[in-house]
Amino acid sequence: MQGEEGAFEKADASIKRLLKADKKSVEGLSISGSLLTIKARTTGSLWRRIFYSYKAAKTLDKAVRLGPDNVSARTIRAFTALVLPGFLKRLRTAAGDFEYLIAIKSEDPERLPDEMMPKVYLNLGLAYAKMGVYERAREVLSVVTARFPGSRESHRAQNLIAKIEQRSQ
Predict the structure, then answer these.
(1) Angle between helix 71-83 and 117-131 (nearest 10)
(2) For every residue of the chain, which 3-state class applies, written as one string?
């Protein structure tokens, strides 16, 4: 991981102070969950990876429980749930959060930036593909290629669609 020396530790300490002052801070819990995911990905110990991954999932669930309409909490949980280990069974959570973000964007376009939507659709399609719901994955990925042609996400969606079609042959 690249970045400023000690930045992760500073961020972690700041979030811990915030949560000590306000245990129900949705944003603080969301960032804490994200930081725990980074810890899980960067630690050398298998047991610590499992511990941090589990703790990240629980922390993000708490954030969404406290702020179910908080777009930041849903966004962080969606992207995090997609990369957590499979045994935590977070793919349905990821898909549900991505679906929620798409619905919010259609109801109130100002709540999410336009440039975020190709990533949301692509990762929703990826979540469905990982769950084995290939027809729905293909539908969502087709939205990426139709609505965001020429984007990096469109190229990735085309590759995923090709892999899904190979599986069905």
Answers:
(1) 40
(2) CCCCCCHHHHHHHHHHHHHHHCCCCHHHHHHHHHHHHHHHHHCCCHHHHHHHHHHHHHHHHHHHHHCCCCHHHHHHHHHHHHHCCHHHCCHHHHHHHHHHHHHHHHHCHHHCCHHHHHHHHHHHHHHHHHHCCHHHHHHHHHHHHHHCCCCHHHHHHHHHHHHHHHHCC
**158 class by beta-carbon count within 10 Å (0-12 exposed, 13-18 middle, 19+ buried):** middle
CB contact at 8 A, 85 and 95: no
Q: Length of the chain in residues, anyone?
A: 169
Top CATH class, 1-89: mainly alpha
Q: What predicted TM-score, i.e. pTM, was given to this entire model? A: 0.90
In this predicted model, what pLDDT tens digit does every residue of 116-160 receive, in sequence order? 999 999 999 999 999 999 999 999 999 999 999 999 999 999 999
